[in-house]
Write a structure and sequence with these properties.
binds S-adenosylmethionine; 8-stranded mixed beta sheet; alpha/beta; Rossmann fold; globular; 4-stranded antiparallel beta sheet; 2 domains; about 30% strand; SAM-dependent methyltransferase; methyltransferase; transferase
């Protein structure tokens, strides 16, 4: 997870924005953040989204990621000076402050490979949510088996690196049916000179049912399940699982509500 060369090797990190860039999730989340004043981006990566949110006005924006090489890019982008970047682990980081919006984008939630890791990440979300705050993240629906498209034949593409020129990129993939973890390789072969960069990564595909059970345990409730960044509702065939939720009612508040009810 934290040792993945895709995120930790400065030469491979140079490919991240070329491959991923500004997508439908970035647009959706930037719009959602527009009405909030404090935003925590867990697994913020190269900070494209966090910096764009921070550029929109006076907001408290914090980006957390364990990969120093990703944060180096984040700090240098326009708006990067308006974000507080924290080198930290989404499972354990505790900032001692709360936010109106806690988000993980670009399937960052899937870097948490085990149930313990996923639950720990959810507890981090809960620890940083203000009472009225919301959280949102995306995870690919395992029923759709998107990893079947990450074979060399189906994934081959040509990308253009600003300094290295044309680059042939492709993936390869293995799925472990016992754990549900998908291990995938990423290759970049530079046309000029033939040098090849390679990384091996692992991601999890928790099911909708697993997410519901972990959220209960972490003290989170979901108000809406989306199935895609176009805003469609989640169903079994949706490609994405996108919960939008909040803290389960804090115990203190519900006790107070109970005692008020008994007085009337
Ligand atoms: C697929 S990238 C997503 C980056 C960014 N959110 C985006 O939308 O482009 C996954 C990110 O998760 C980060 N990551 C890996 N392990 C992590 C952990 N334990 N806690 C928080 N982030 C982690 C990686 O360094 C990487 O930046």
């Amino acid at each position: 997870m934290t040792s993945d060369k895709l995120y930790n090797d400065p030469e491979l990190v140079e490919f991240y924005d070329i491959e991923n860039g500004w997508t439908a999730d970035s647009e959706y989340l930037k719009t959602m953040a527009a009405s909030r004043t404090s935003i925590l981006d867990l697994g913020c990566g190269t900070g494209l989204l966090a910096a764009a949110i921070a550029r929109e006005g006076s907001k408290r924006v914090v980006g957390v990621d364990p990969a120093a090489a990703m944060l180096d890019i984040a700090r240098q982008r326009p708006g990067g000076d308006r974000v507080r970047w924290v080198e930290g682990d989404g499972r354990t980081v505790r900032l001692g402050e709360t936010f109106d919006l806690v988000l993980l984008s670009g399937h960052a939630f899937q870097v948490f490979l085990t149930r313990d890791d996923q639950l720990a990440a959810m507890k981090t979300i809960a620890a940083h949510l203000s009472p009225q705050g919301h959280f949102i993240f995306d995870s690919r629906n395992p029923r759709v088996e998107e990893w079947k498209e990450w074979t060399p034949a189906l994934s081959e593409r040509v990308i253009v690196h600003p300094e290295l020129g044309d680059v042939l990129a492709w993936n390869d993939v293995r799925h472990d049916p016992d754990t549900g973890v998908v291990e995938y390789d990423t290759f970049y072969r530079i046309a000029a000179g033939g040098r090849t960069f390679a990384a091996q990564s692992k991601i999890a595909f928790p099911s909708h049912e697993d997410l519901v059970s972990m959220m209960n345990e972490a003290g989170l409730v979901v108000e809406q399940w989306l199935g895609g960044w176009d805003g469609r509702r989640f169903d079994a065939s949706a490609s994405e699982i996108i919960p939008i939720g909040r803290l389960a009612r804090p115990a203190v508040q519900s006790n107070r509500a109970q005692s008020m009810t008994s007085r009337t």
